[in-house]
Amino acid sequence: MDFTSAMAAGDLGTLALGLLIAGVVSGLTAGLLGVGGGIVIVPVLYHVLSVMGVEEGLRMHIAVGTSLATIIPTSFSSLTSHNKKGVVDWELLKRWVAPMFVGVLVGSVLAGMVRGQILTLVFGFVALPLAAQLAFAKESWRLSDHLPRGIGGAALPFGIGGVSTMMGIGGGLLGVTNMTLCGYPIHRAVGTASAFGAIISIPGTIGAIAAGWGVHGLPPYSLGYANLMGFLIIAPVSFFAAPFGASIAHMTDTVRLRKLFALFVAVTAAKMLWDALG
Q1: What distance in Å separates the CA atoms of residue 111 and residue 145, rounded to the nearest whole number?
Q2: Which domain holds residue 61?
Q3: Of 76, 101, 230, 259, which is most buried, counting CB atoms within 10 Å of its CB?
Q4: Residue 255 host element (H or E)
Q5: Residue 222: which H helix or E strand, with range?
Q6: Residue 252 and residue 103 in contact, taking contact as beta carbons nearer than 8 Å
Q7: Which residues lie below 8 Å from residue 229, measured CB to CB, with a gap of 6+?
Q8: How many domains does the chain have?
Q9: What contacts 5, CB < 8 A, 6 or more positions away?
Q10: What are phi and psi of 182, to 5 degrees?
């Protein structure tokens, strides 16, 4: 059953509901934990596309490209909310924006060249340790008492940009994890990482559109690997949900929420790895 037939058979409502839920959860997590929502959107889209009968080799490319597109408005909404609270480190962003942008370009090229199975493996193998860190890490855990400078100071945002682009995420999860491990205050890390989504998602989406342009077998309403249906449902919901997540982040002990979110990430990443390796 192909994508169009599935919609004609009445699956459109189920698809819309799944995308709506993904939008709400991704927006809340964007504001709450400083992540761009892609860590939720990518696995949801991957499994929805599987149910809709989209070719296996295209699912992850479409999920990544569509996720990056939806992160664009969410990231600006989250950044605005955190900036109002004065927790965005603009000086750090000035140092990191260039190497992160270069990382996004490299990640976009690689994502367009490799098979969908490789992107699925990248997502799964990176998401699992991130989930463990979310669930079990303590604030006292440190690799350093300051962020690296020099080559290391450029390599870190480069890696965040490149890997996040290949995973279809906004860079917040990787960014907050690495920043806090280097002794950076958690609330300031979350606020600053909210800007990573804009740096990553805009060029990443353009790269996904270009890489998928003219590819056969894409679902209807696709611009390359970015699907407009997913964007139009998820993006506005995420945009309006993000400020609520940002407000909760500054009022609530998020330990339990982090563990529940980590469980979701671990289960979905494990399922994707099973599909890719099975």
Answers
A1: 34
A2: 3-277
A3: 230
A4: helix 255-277
A5: strand 222-223
A6: no
A7: 15, 19, 219, 220, 221
A8: 1
A9: 53
A10: -100, 20
